[in-house]
Structures are given as structure tokens and as C-alpha cells.
Amino acid sequence: xxxxxxxxxxxxxxHFPIYKGVIRRQxxxxxxxxxxxxxxxxxxxxxxxxxSGCGKSTxxxxxxxxxxxxxxxxxxxxxxxxxxxxxxxxxxxxxxxxIFQDPYASLNPRKTVADIVGEPLVVHKLxxxxxxxxxxxxxxxxxxxxxxxxxxxxxxxxxxxxxRIGIARxxxxxxxxxxxxxxxxxLDVSIQAQVINLxxxxxxxxxxxYLFIAHDLSMVRHISDRVAVMYLGVIVELAEREELxxxxxxxxxxxxxxxxxxxxPVAEENRKRILLEGxxxxxxxxxxxxxxxxxxxxxxxxxxxxxxxxxxxxxKHFVACHLVEA
Amino acid sequence: xxxxxxDVKGLETRFRTDEGxxxxxxxxxxxxxxxxxxxxxxxSGCGKSVxxxxxLRLIPTPPGMIAGGTAEFxxxxxxxxxxxxxRHIRGAQISMIFQDPMxxxxxxxxxxxxxxxxxxLHLNMTQEKADEKAAELxxxxxxSGASERLKDYPHQFSGGMRQRVMxxxxxxxxxxxxxxxxxxxxxxxxxxxxFIDLVKRLQKNLGMAIIWITHDLGVIAxxxxxxxxxxxxxxxxxxxxxxxxxxxxxxxxIGLLGSLPRLDGKHSERLVSIDGxxxxxxxxxxxxxxxPRCEFVIDKCLKENPILEEFSPKHRVAxxxxxxxxxxx
Lengths: 326, 329
What we know:
The complex is a heterodimer of chains A (326) and B (329).
Chain A: E1 5-20, E2 25-41, E3 45-49, H1 56-63, E4 71-76, E5 79-80, H2 86-92, E6 96-99, H3 113-123, H4 129-142, H5 159-171, E7 177-181, H6 189-206, E8 209-214, H7 217-223, E9 226-231, E10 234-240, H8 241-246, H9 251-259, H10 265-269, H11 301-305, E11 311-314, E12 317-319
Parallel strand pairs in A: 3-8, 3-9, 6-7, 7-8
Antiparallel strand pairs in A: 1-2, 1-4, 4-5, 9-10, 10-12, 11-12
Helix pairs in contact in A: 3-4, 3-5, 4-5, 5-6
Chain B: E1 4-17, E2 20-33, E3 37-41, H1 48-55, E4 64-73, E5 76-77, H2 83-89, E6 94-97, H3 111-122, H4 127-140, H5 146-149, H6 159-170, E7 177-181, H7 189-206, E8 209-214, H8 217-221, E9 226-231, E10 234-240, H9 241-246, H10 251-258, H11 299-303, E11 309-312, E12 315-317, E13 321-322, E14 327-328
Parallel strand pairs in B: 3-8, 3-9, 6-7, 7-8
Antiparallel strand pairs in B: 1-2, 1-4, 4-5, 9-10, 10-12, 11-12, 13-14
Helix pairs in contact in B: 3-4, 3-6, 4-6, 6-7
């Protein structure tokens, strides 16, 4: 893993407007992503974890400009993606691709696998006729599917196989960065391992960089080099994998990690859980100051008044919390 | 020795579909003691939910059909009861909570109405008494302002709260057995931790037995004492939880445990993956249903379906192969 930055995200915001009434006046906004920043290094896997609704998928999609960012910079190869026109952005998508969560909804049911996997090549005019066919055959074998199935339709495949089709499509353009948006959460346990192993093999073979978005903290530990924890639209902690899982500093990361069950009854017996009170607040009216102060077991008055600064408290370990000592 | 309250033997359930008859549950047997927690673990489609739905006679018939077996609850075979008699057991003596708290509550009835219904029906309570008990129940599952919230509708509750309402409802008539069918699958981990903590406390106070169905080997590790692993409509391994995790004997159980990365970072660099897919059984199994995916497979596996046999005291496994030698037992 190098430390050459491939993608730099700075103060990224995505607010979804809420309209009401006859004249569709904007009455508010869902602050889905509210000032997120991080770097992704070339060849690494950055894990982005958090619970549902914390904005992790929105972050991934906004980087790819599937949503137009409300504010912030997305610097890729010296270019700010946030400022590009649609046409310019489309060219950039050759370098950044995405694998979606739901292998049932993300493949067009009326297209054959060959059409689906070959479409990026057609759109970007990278191949024609026979070449496309050859490339599709190559891609399908690469992801472990029998190329003889190229003329079948998505419904003829299982969930794990469909996810392989999604991966083949993402790789068709030979991207540098692949955003994996919960690629395994719709799959059964024994199938999850198949897909994860495939992603790891592909990374090694092609030097891919992954942004791996997931809520399964054990899987994120397994696949990531560094991990960022998100809560209600902001990143609260970012560190290298071992550091984050062994020595989490933010009270939310601590609670989140303590809540994950370990498949080992002996280890489970000796664990202490930090149980959080209540539910995640609404991102329409996020709490003032630190977003987490309403559920934080150690919150003080400053936490509700001031937004905590993003600090490097230890080398390569970043935290946004007033109460964490350096 | 605790009292045995549920004794299921040789349960078989089938579904008629356009493609043929699906043999969803094939001769499943288990017992439940008073106040104990057992886990049934398996992947989607393995028959774990259908097993418990069959015991409660909640299988839609047709297309479903319970083709054989007995399910004795305090010595009374549930599978032979009249529907009317069954109704007195369901919800009162044995109750069930489901995976999806969004769809298992009626969206047009208030929480209070839904919570009091089983008590009015089974315990012959007056409406006032039931309302009072309902508020107590909500309080018990940690929903504050309970008497006010009884007037609310399900959409006014979050996912975790709805699952709390579901368990309040399931426990309203003091059942002897609570069947929990993946109740935390739709919940976030921090909410899941709250919910499991709640269930453990409730069990301590009320003493019901719990049958917890899940695909999550992590959840079961911290919850159950005894567990069964299900594959292709049969139990393939059964043991105390600690024994099973420390010393799994069935190749499927071994694969399943190896395919899980661990939060505490123990385990290898590469996940063990089980090739292939779980089966859909259009024929009654005449060979081991796991054989096509099994790395230990021997001739016998393709000729005869193994049944659960004792491996060590309280540890049973359905496999022809001794995995320590790779040869037939």
C-alpha cells in the first residue's frame, strides 16, 4: 500500500431538499452528508462503516456524482469532480466505478448478461462488435462465471452470481477506484465469503483501490486497510484498521464495536457491551454541536454547543470529539 | 432435570409449487426444556422458519402441507389439534415474533388496540384491565410514556421500538415458549444489542423458553445454550453452543464458521468459502444434501442421507465422514 493519494474529499455535503405545499416550497433538507473529508490512497481499501441512514452510501454515490454535491471538493487526479459538467464527469467514470448493494435491483432484467457487462464498453466507445464479445467472455471468466451463460438473463442467476455480474460490469472499463456499496449485505453467509475473496483477488491482480461501504464491522475489518466511522452525516473517527478496532477513541466507535456479536461463545461471555440509549436522531434536524451528544454516555455541556474539530490525536488516527485526549 | 415442554419428532413439511413439490423440512426432531434458550441456525431457504411455522400450524395450506411427524407440547400433539384448539395455544402458550417489525404490525390500528387484542381473547380481560396491562408491558420493554404511546400508530415508532412492541405483544399472555424468527435482522447493531439485552432480562424475569432462529452465528454465540445447524431441510449438527463453536464436526458447520471474519481479528487472512449454492429439494433427499458442496465427500454420501448420530455426549452430527481422518466413520 502506498501513501499516494488517489482521491481527496474535502468538506463534502449532500443535502436533499424537502418540499411541501401546493407551490412545492422548500421547507427543510435532509442533511444526509454534512461535511465529510478523507483521502483514499492508491491501492488501498478504505472501509466506511456506520448504521443505516448515517450517509455512508450517499457519500459513495456523491463521489461518483450520482448525486450532485451541495458543497465540497472531490479531487481525483488533480481534477475537482464536483465542478465538472455532466459530459466531463461521464469521462471520469471510466476511472471510478461502483458495485451496488442489491444484485436484484441493479441489473436490468430485460438485458442479457452480455449486454449488461458489455454496455460500459459501448457507452464509452472502447470496443466494437466482436471485440465486445471477447471482452465480455474474458470478464465473465475473471469473476468466476461460465462465459457460456452470457446470453442468459439476470433472473436465471442466484444472488451471489448476480453480484459477480455487477462486479464484471464495474471492471469492464478497467477503473482505478471501485466504490463497493454494501456489495455483500444481500447475500447469504457462505456466499459472502465467495464474493469477498473474489474482490480481494481482483484487487491484487489489477491494483484496484476500493472504497468499501458496509455496516458489517467484522467484514470491514477483514477487507480494509483503514477504516472511517460515520454517524449522522459526519465522519467521527478514521484510523488504520488494527488501531481503530483495538483502540477506538470516539465514544460512538466504542459503542458500535462493543455491540457487534462475535461468533465465539467464550469470547461473548467475557465481553462488556456499551448500550446506547434511544435511536439515531433525524438528519432533518440534526443535533447541535457534536451530532452524537444526545446518545453519548460521556457528553458534557461543550458537546451540545460546539461542533468538535477533526483532529489527528495520534499519528494517522483522526477523531472528532471534544473529550478525547491527545 | 428440567421439564421438557416441547418435543418435536420427525417433522416433514412440503410445498407444492409449479416446479414440483419442494421438500422444505425433512424429518426434523428436537426438544425444548422449560426456560432454556435454543438456537436454530441456517442460511435462507434451509427450512428453519418453516420448521417453527409448522409447529405453530401457520403454514398456508395449500400450497404447504405438514406431511408427517408429531409436535408434542406438554404431551399434546399440536399437529392433531383442531384449528379452534390450536388458537388457544398460539399467542397464549407459544408465541412468535418475526423478522420484519414493519410488516408484522397492522398499520391502521393503534399500538394499544393491537397490544390488548391477545389479552382480551386469551385471558378474558376487560378492556380497562387490558389497557392497564398493555401500558405495563410497554413500560417493561423500555418504551417511556407508555400510556400515551398506546394511542400511537406503528408508523410513529422506529424499527427498534416496533420490535419492542412486538415482543411486548408476544409476552402479554405469559407464554411458555417464545419463538423468535430473526427478530434482529432488520435492526442496526447498536439497536440489536439493546434488543438482545432486553430479551435476556425478560427471560430472567418471566422464565419462558426461547427458540431463536437466525443466520447470524454471532448473535447465537452470546444468547443460546444449545443450538442446531440446519441445511437442506434437516438438522445436520446439534450441540451445546460452546462445544459446537469449539469443535464443529459437520463440514458445513466448519465452512460456515470459517467464512465469518471476526471483529476481534482472530482468524486467517483469507475467508473459507463454500463453493456452490444451497439446494432446493424437489425430491426427498436420498443423498446428503450438502454432498455437492462438500470437500470431504465420499461414495456413501451420494448413496444415503446421513441422520443425526451421537459424536460425543450431547453432540450429534449427521455426516458419514470422520473429518479428522477423512474416512467413513
